[in-house]
Amino acid sequence: MQELTGLDFDPVSGYVFYADKGAQNIAKKNVFEASPPEIIVSGNVVDPVGLRLDIPSRLVYWTDAARGTVSVTDLDGTMIVTLVDTGLSAPGAIVTEPYEGYIYYIDTGSEARVERADGDGRNQMAIADGLVSPTSLAIDTDERVLYWVDASLNTLESVRYDGTGRRRAYSYDEDRTPFGLVLDSDAFIFSDPTNQRLWVDDRNLTQVGENSVVFRVDPLDYRGITLRPRTALAIDPGSCPTPGCSDLCLPRPNDQYACVIACDHELTASSSPGTLTSPGYPANYPNNLNCVIHIRAPEGQVIQLIFHDFDLGSSRDCIFDSLVIENGIDGGPRLLDPSCGEHLIWPPDPTVLESTGNEMTIQFVTDGSITGAGFSITYLAVTPNPDIMVVAEGDRLRYWYRRSSQNQLIEPIVNPINDSIAVDYDPVSEYFYYSDRGTRSIGRIHRARSLSAETLYTEDIVYPFGMCIDVISRLLYWTDADLGTISVSDLEGTERATIIDTDLDSPGSIVVEPYTGYIYYTDWGSSAKIERAEGDGSNRLVLVDQDLGLPRALTMDFTERSLYWIDARLGTLQTVRYDGSNQRELYTFHGFDPFSMVIDASHIFFTDALPESGSIRFIGRDLSGDSRGLIFGGKDHYRGLALRPLTDDGTSSPGTCPMTQCDGLCLPRPNNQFTCSTADPGVVCPDDSVVYFDSGQLPSVQVTWEEPAGTVVSSSEDSGDFFPRGVTTVTYTLRVNGAIETCTFTVTVMERDTAPPVFVNCPTSKEVWVGPGNTSSLVTWDTVRLQDPNDVILSTSVPSGSVFFVGRMTVTILASDIASNTATCSFTVTVRVDNIPPAISQCPANITIDLTRSSEEDVVVTWVVPSVTDNAGDADWSEEPTPGTRFPIGTSEVTYTATDDFNNLASCTFYVTVNGVVVPPVFQNCPGPMMAWIGPGETTKRVMWDTITLDDPEDTIVSSSLQSGSEFFVGTETVYVEATGPSSNSAWCNFTVTIQVDDIPPVISQCPANITISLVGKSEKETVVNWAEPEATDNSDGENVVWVDRPSPGSFPVGIREVTYTVKDSSNNVASCTFYVTVKGDEDREGDNDKDVSIIVGAAAGGGGAFLFLLFIIAIIVLIFRRRRRPAQDDPPARDNPPAYFQPGGIGGAARANDVYDTTIYESPYEIPKPAARKLPAIPDDPFT
Q1: How many CB atoms lie within 10 A of CB 596?
Q2: How many whole angstroms separate alpha carbon 174 and alpha carbon 518?
Q3: What is the 8-class DSSP label of residue 1114?
Q4: Of the candidates 127, 147, 125, 126, which has an alpha carbon nearest to the alpha carbon of residue 136?
Q5: Residue 394 and residue 548: Cα distance in Å, rounded?
Q6: Rounded distance, CA 810 to CA 144, Å?
């Protein structure tokens, strides 16, 4: 927003509409949403002042002081009409009377006044004049009175609707400067920009001046002001009662409405095509139109127009009715010069026209005389087609893509080009065409499919310099600077013709204007010039022959209808119009040798052929130094340059030659004329003719014709002779160009036929449906045929393919035969609005299926598909899923949707429920009863068990009364574990945990008896002693006992040794087991001393107790003495270290802890077998330790 003037509020939509003088537009903004403003009118808005809504009719009226106009649009700005454009000097404030069909506005010019007009701008009349400086206008619809403020007189004045009862309601003090004015039921509200206030005065004007209420005091420049209800509770937006009105429906007095042609439009192009037609199309457009249509596309896209029909009143230079198309909104370069008649100036029908930016202006002007059907155009936003630029570089061609991220030269071919000079590209076939001076040939190469060139022509080619493709007529033109000729061929190299071979010295560059049928070319010989000729080489015209040195690099600007070229000798860039006027020098090149040039909307591209600076460069169309630069360098031999769309965008669609009997080249000429390059026109004979005589008359008729051109030598009949009934052949013999030619035609005389034509297939009456909100439809029917192929259809009241509005219309077709007998065929076309959705019948009921096996996860379900009918034809089905689909366990929704041709919807929904087999979860490792012991004095025990798992990974454990690792008290407690599956089926795993107090020691069993072993050899001092180790069990858990002392079998020395096993349980209860190992040495057996002692003792026993006791003492002394006589090395080790036989392996070395040894006493060492060891299971650690 820049400088707001008028504004109003729409309580229906919540939008404020305002006129922005600074931005020169009409816009709207939703006051209840955080959304940006929307411009609804921008073209032809210069100085908008007043603005007012007609809420029931949904219209926006505004005035433009600079244009002197009153205009109206719908609330979206899609249809715009200027209602009043005469008799106003500087229109200002405006109000509407929506219930009586009037608009009131003020003119602030030299003859300031208040005017009234009908809602469509007709019947203007002044109701109050002699005003000085009226600034605002307000309306009281109850009293039917208008009020306005005069800024110069500082007064409030009023007048009735009909102009009577004018009075000055109040004069304000000088400290008050009222500007804007609105009314409510009991107050006047003024804006005061000078004092920056809003004032409120009562309607009786008793509280004025010092008694006025200051409503707002802000540092703002208050001007425009409006007052409306916040919501539309009391407003009923109306609809136009005029049937078939597709334009603006404007209210008029006495409940009348005018359907006014909306000539101006503000359109937004998108990827979805829109349709733009002339007012009234396909009927003839009205007179005296001046329509301006603005079209905008999103940033980065361009606007594409597709012409389907074009028929404007024809005039020379299109000075009466015309269509003009420009780039941009404010007078940009033209895309289409003024066009009229049945063909566009550029390009021809059918055509596609594309803007270079995202904005376009279309101006349609008509006068007060002849009209036509107008035009039908499709518009849409498209992404610009990338351009391809190709350059000839001597022995190769290279190209790159513009308007794309790829910016490198691509080389499509490597041979057999020798010295390429000129090049062009055909976007239809995607072939590069080039001239090769080295091989004196014309060739081509496909952009994507080939790796080598294809030679088209080599004969009669010496120095092919210039080349250009006519993409419409599918022709290739080239010049030969050595032969002084211009030639043309088709693009396949099958037909060729030389069209100019005289009065050319060294023809160089050549360009084609495919839409007008002209070619333009340079001649840089001794008499340099630039010429124009028709596409067949005829009607040559010198356009430029002054201020030329060496003209080459010729190119053209279709939008400006101008030629550009570079003069290599003068170093200048020059231009001239197509007709040779307005020759100008635009730019001077320094340090370059421009060879070839192409242009687009914003840049000029040229090749520099200097060896030391060979490059491809550009300069902006504004020719400023800030917009020039280098594209590719490298000092290559850059020569010919071409710029085309990469692919056919519609502007190069091939045309069709109308010369059906042309066996050669069909060469275009101006005004849609063509020349067959090989056809000999010969003698043109009169057409065959048929004449009639009426029944009852003499069967002889006088017939005249125009004699054929040439000198008549003889003729079988002459023009004006009478011919009898039947067919007469007329033969002429003529001398043409010195040769004798003949020509024949027939004259048929027959009785006039009185039978009318007979229709073969007169269409039956048609009923067509349109969707809600639509008012018309395109209706077609089969081509109407007549029984007699010589009969013709003269007229059709409404042709097939026309737009029919809602309602009934009769179509009448008039036919005539060659005898002027006529017949008619009539039928009706009825267009109805379809707002009835399709009808769906036999919608299936809900389906429930129970599975029987637990392994099943889904099941195939079928049903009968419902049927659908529609009042206006067929309806499309959308079903998901379909019968025969596999449905998983659970409930699935099935919906059928029927849509008719007008998007009326109906749906049918049912549900499929699949119940699976309920299988409870299965525990893989539910623990059994568990028991744990504690020692005396303890009360709890921490008990653990393995993680409990389930067979099905989808099942889950949801609860456990106690967790593994919990503390359990003395006694028995049950643990409850619950698991559930996807179907909420449950299973339980229950086990007990018992805690008991253990005060009973372990029990040791199989404790070995005492062992006695005698040594065999006298030198032996020790021996290996084996025994079966004892076992321990416990009342709590035998595996939890721990051996505290557990000596191993091994080597024992001579003597008596005590062996003790000690074990404890988890409650620290202890038990032990002891036995003795006795090893007897050799000295214990010498002289049988031991036996003697025993005998002595035994003998003494019979003599008396004292003697026996004495003998016992003596025996002990002897034994002690004998032992003390052993060598030192046989003495037992000191007691502070454990004896070797108590260490692992004993004296003999590394014995294993769990080895078991034989304890048998052997008499001889040779009897002792090698110990056989066996591995016993390892004793597990005590988990309770």
Answers
A1: 27
A2: 73
A3: H
A4: 147
A5: 27
A6: 46
Q: How many CB atoms lie under 10 A from the CB of residue 795?
A: 11
Q: What is the DSSP string of 740-796?
A: EEEEEEEEEEEEPP-SPP-BS-PPPPEEEEE-TT--EEEE--PPP-BSSTT-EEEEE
Q: Say how far apart CA 291 and CA 277 lie, in whole Å.
A: 11
Percent of the chain at pLDDT > 90 equals 25
Q: Which residues contact 800 (CB under 8 A, 6 or more apart)?
A: 779, 780, 781, 783
pLDDT in tens, 904-931: 888 899 999 998 877 788 888 999 999 8
**90 near 108, Cβ under 8 Å?**
yes
988: enclosing H helix or E strand: strand 986-997
Listed in sequence order, the residues at least 6 apart from 790 whose beta carbon sits closer than 8 Å to its beta carbon are: 817, 818
User: Among 141, 139, 177, 172, which Cα is nearest to 158's?
Assistant: 139
Secondary structure of 291-322 in HEC code, one letter for each residue: EEEEEECCCCCEEEEEEEEEEECCCHHHCCCE
Pairing, β 986-997 against β 930-934: parallel
Separation CA 1180–CA 713 (nearest Å): 141
| Average pLDDT, integer, range 220-231 | 67
Q: Assess contact for 151 and 133: CB atoms under 8 A.
A: yes
Task: Count other C-beta atoms under 10 Å from residue 1171's C-beta.
Answer: 14
**What pLDDT, on the 0 to 100 scale, is given for residue 235?**
47
Q: Residue 395 and residue 436: Cα distance in Å, rounded?
A: 9
pTM for the predicted model, two decimal places? 0.39
CB 577 within 8 Å of CB 518 = no
The long-range contacts involving 691-698, CB below 8 angstroms and separated by at least 24 positions, are 691/723, 691/747, 691/748, 691/749, 691/750, 692/749, 692/750, 692/751, 692/752, 692/753, 692/818, 692/819, 693/725, 693/749, 693/750, 693/751, 693/752, 694/751, 694/752, 695/751, 695/752, 695/754
Query: To which residue do tokens 């035994």 refer?
Result: 1098
Q: What are the helix and strand counts (H, E) for the chain?
A: 2, 90
Q: d(Cα 889, Cα 984) in Å, to the nearest integer?
A: 13
The number of residues in the chain equals 1185
Q: Is 1147 exposed, middle or buried (0-12, 13-18, 19+ CB in 10 A)?
A: middle
Structure tokens at 16: 């404020």
Q: How many Å apart are CA 402 and CA 388, to the nearest integer?
A: 6
Q: Is it true that the peptide bond before 1171 is cis, omega within 30 degrees of 0?
A: no
Judge whether 608 and 617 are in contact, CB under 8 Å. yes
In degrees, rounded to 5, the angle at the alpha carbon of residue 933 between the alpha carbons of residues 930 and 939 is: 110
pLDDT, tens digit, 9 for 90 and up, residues 246-288: 678 888 898 888 877 777 777 888 888 888 888 877 788 888 8
The whole-angstrom separation of Cα 1083 and Cα 1130 is: 13
Both structure tokens of 444: 């081509």
Cβ atoms of residues 744 and 730 within 8 Å: yes
